[in-house]
Design a protein that fits this description.
Elements: E1 2-6, H1 9-26, E2 31-34, H2 41-52, E3 62-64, E4 67-69, H3 80-87, E5 100-101, H4 110-124, E6 129-133, E7 154-157, H5 160-166, E8 178-181, H6 184-189, E9 192-197, H7 203-211, H8 219-222, E10 229-234
Parallel strand pairs: 1-10, 2-3, 2-6, 3-5, 6-9, 9-10
Antiparallel strand pairs: 4-8, 7-8
Bound molecules: 2-phosphoglycolic acid (PGA).
Keywords: Carbohydrate metabolism, Hydrolase
Domain Glucosamine/galactosamine-6-phosphate isomerase: 9-229
Organism: Heyndrickxia shackletonii
Length: 242
């Protein structure tokens, strides 16, 4: 896996944004997947500003959501849907609903949700580009430690670390125990995967990701087996690397 280190989270987000813009210029009908969470927000903002200035046109792209907390919808601030729509989809004027496929965390039939999202991706072939944060336990999306590697979309029991970390996203108290997520197979098959991390709190998991052979115990290490993976980190997230 290629590692690119940047002096600040802002310069990292600019570089990631420029990379995505180039990709969309080369393939305007790309299928893109951006994680929710804090990590991609600066990059998403960079992309929105570029779109508003006419530097990039997402009009022919499609988008698929990475994951969602089961039981949460857009009305819960901190849900993946709320984050992606408020920070990106609703701010890019050329986007329409038909371009976006996002898990409904409130769906009664979660298996049908998995099937719907799998079919959307299959219709496009594979995901062209994924921007993934790295969880404190190494999860990618809600592919938690111990994840089977042979799954597309699936419903997951959340790891204790994920439940503990989840409070940072929500203003109100929410009780989350399950997630719905794209699977490791989607990550393996994607044309390009970008893992991203910034800040000192990610330094340990960044080091473990780099130092550990690919294993489900640390799902971020599995990205090394994907076709084309790059890791973008800032100085602080890379501070434990030699
Ligand atoms: P974060 O989350 O971007 O909010 O740090 C990453 C993750 O848990 O996948």
């Amino acid at each position: 896996m290629n590692i690119k280190k940047f002096s600040t989270a802002v310069s990292m987000a600019e570089a990631a944004g420029e990379h995505i813009i180039e990709l969309v210029k080369k393939k305007p009908e790309s299928l893109l997947c951006f994680a929710g969470g804090e990590t991609p927000l600066l990059t998403l903002n960079y992309l929105v500003e570029a779109a508003l200035k006419g530097k990039v046109d997402f009009g022919k792209c499609s988008f698929v959501g990475l994951d969602e907390w089961v039981g949460l919808g857009r009305e819960t601030k901190g849900s993946c849907r709320q984050t992606l729509f408020d920070y990106f989809f609703d701010r890019v004027p050329e986007l329409t609903d038909s371009q976006i496929c996002f898990f409904d965390g409130l769906a009664n039939d979660l298996d049908a949700e998995c099937k719907r999202v799998d079919e959307f991706i299959a219709k496009h072939g594979v995901i062209d580009f994924m921007l993934l944060g790295i969880g404190m336990n190494g999860h990618l999306g809600f592919n938690e430690p111990g994840v089977p590697t042979d799954k597309y979309c699936h419903v997951v029991d959340l790891d204790s670390v994920t439940k503990k970390v989840s409070v940072k996203y929500f203003d109100e108290e929410v009780n989350v125990s399950k997630g719905i997520s794209l699977g490791i197979k989607h990550i393996m098959e994607a044309t390009e995967v970008m893992l991203m991390a910034y800040g000192e709190k990610k330094a340990d998991i960044v080091k473990r990701t780099i130092d550990t052979e690919p294993t489900s115990d640390v799902p971020s290490t599995l990205a090394k087996n994907s076709k084309n993976a790059v890791m973008f980190i800032d100085e602080a997230a890379g501070s434990q690397l030699n």
